[in-house]
Amino acid sequence: MASFDYMTPCSPSNFVGRKREIDLFKAQMDKVMAGEETAKGIIIHGRSGIGKTSLINKLVTVAQNSSCYVISHEIPLVGAEYVLDDLRAEIETLPKGKPFQKPTKRGKKGKKAPFVKRSYEIIDREKYLAEFFKKFTKKLDGNQKKVVKKGMKGIVVFIDNIERFLFLDLDVAFDILKGICDQITTVDKKGRPFNIPILFVISAWERYYPKIKYILTNFEEIGVPTLNMADANELLMKHETGAGLSIDEEVRERLIETSLNVPQMILYNGGYISENREGVREITKDLWNEKLEADVKTGFDRELVGISEGERKIMQAFSMETVNFADLVKISQGSGLQLKECEAELNNLISKKMISKEAAYYYITLNAFWEHLRNSLGDIAIGAQAKGIMLVAEDDAENGRLFSDFLHDEMERLRTDAVTAGLVAPIELIARGYERIFNSCFRYKYYNASFEYILLAGESYVKINEIEKASLILERATNMFKANDLGDYARDVLTKTIDTYQLLGDQTKVRELKLDLAQLSLSKAEENMATNNFPLARANYSRAQRLLDDVGETDQLINMIKTAADTFMEKQEFFYAWQFYGKLSDVYLKTGDNSTAASILKQAADKFTSIGQNKFADKLNEQLSKKIPVGGT
Q1: Which of 5, 173, 537, 578 could make an SS bond with 528 (beta carbons 3.0 to 4.6 A apart)?
Q2: Rounded Cα gap, residues 287 and 279, in angstroms
Q3: pTM
Q4: Three-state SS for 139?
Q5: Cα dihedral value 351, 352, 358, 362, nearest 10
Q6: 380-505 classified as CATH 1.25.40
Q7: Is 39 helix (H, G, I), strand (E, B) or coil?
């Protein structure tokens, strides 16, 4: 079972994937360390169990290997108000090469920065923040120069579990972080650059990300998605080896899918298989089908089997809490147990590692398990409503009936509420449902509805950081529309597909898809020309022009613009012809071929003169004199 440890962050040797997230971090870190005027903060966010802390640990190594000092903090349930004071003191000790020692006693004020206060303790917020910034940034510039002299590029500060500031009514900490990052990215009183190479990297639970991002508008964000199948396979195989297991390839794939590609759930279910394999080393399809699959699919419900009535009452109490921690008195009140009885049951749960304790506070050890309790025992209004409506909608779509406007509006309201609240499970449920509705609508040739629902599915997946999944379903939908000669739908879905691949940073794919979109736009322009729909033809030619220019396909761009200009001329659409001859000239100017650029304008002017369109001839000659002065050819 040790090899399938799902309770602690992944060890460096077992870490897999996350190339995109690591590359985004490195790019932002390099900008900061180079002294560029850029965001000094990154929010890493994702659902519980997705591997945020494992990623943070990996990024710590990346920063250290990039010659940066690294400071790591986790927001505690007790003493969170001292974290920034300790952070400022630790920054000051870095160039001295001395290990930082937290003070054993605390005064009324922070030594290097004021303590973070609760909202009700602050009388004058503006004055309090100004004092905080002044103390925190005092001597910071000089201290950074010492860092550089030591041969280091700068400092990267990692802060895990940042959402605890919200739990503890210390949300002013986010205003403080925002202000600090603003101040170290501006100029000092004498107008000199005050661009200190410090990067703050904080991790936040997706549930609380919307509120945190609303405040930290000057932070970049990196969303952590589920693992793709290749990375999930690699993760599982590494743990298989450590446990002395050999899992059939098909079984491994089904286990990953059952675990929704979430790393923690993959290891949790892998551990269950390891414990219940009946002494065999090979996990075959027969063993999976007959004895393992049904139990694996129950997920965290397995933890609720065999617990005492008192333990169940405590779990029920936690499921009704808005945050994952409470003291003994609050749990006693919520569970209806007497204090001594409640404490005894809590200690039993601690021994089972289901609950942990920090000072006077108890909390469900796994945030993912707390989320599961909320979904199975607590207040799950959004999830329950979404599931009910989606069942009706999918049944209607499967039988050739369109989703009613009322139910559609209700579902969108729930989706908006879930996005606002950072609730991953309902959003994922809705995204999967919309994807299935798309498939059913497409089968019945309800193309307008299928178009609408695939866009909503893609948008929903992006909201929960599943950008790769969004890219794949949108690209698949594009190809389905193209195969059925539905160019209008294909173009619009392809535009969204390009946006998602841009988010992934896959420039090779973006270029390929832009060329595809340019061809679709060109085909539509030719179709518009054939039906004399000239405004739309111009719009589609212009879209193709922008796309070809973006990907650097100059020869194709020149041929396309020349064809457009000549065709508009033949159709006697002189205004559009004049525009495109000008655009053609601009392409040559951009490549440095002034001679050809001038020749195009002269020849076009002569064409307009020969047919009595002197107004456009004069415009082209004016362009020629302004863009290419005498001697400029």
Answers
A1: 537
A2: 12
A3: 0.80
A4: coil
A5: -110
A6: yes
A7: coil
Q: What is the mean pLDDT of the chain?
A: 86
Residue with tokens 């004399």: 532
**Same CATH fold assignment for domains 18-223 and 380-505:** no
Packing angle, helices 125-137 and 83-93, rounded to 10: 20
- Which CATH architecture describes the domain 18-223? 3-Layer(aba) Sandwich (3.40)
Q: Among 154-158, 160-164, 418-422, 562-566, where is mean pLDDT lowest?
A: 418-422
Which positions ≥6 away from 344 have C-beta within 8 Å?
A: 310
| Cα separation, 449 vs 451, whole angstroms | 5
Backbone angles phi, psi at 186, to 5 degrees: -110, -140
* Helix (H), strand (E) at residue 154: strand 154-160
CA 454/CA 470 separation, integer angstroms: 9
Cα separation, 58 vs 279, whole angstroms: 35
Q: How far apart are CA 557 and CA 545, in angstroms?
A: 6
pLDDT of 30-39, one tens digit each?
Answer: 998 888 888 8
Nearest to 371 by CA among 330, 315, 291, 332: 315
Q: Phi and psi of 247, rounded to 5°?
A: -100, 130
Domain ranges of the chain: 18-223, 229-297, 303-376, 380-505
pLDDT tops 70 at residue 192: no
Place of tokens 């294909």: 490
Q: What is the CATH number of domain 303-376?
A: 1.10.10.10
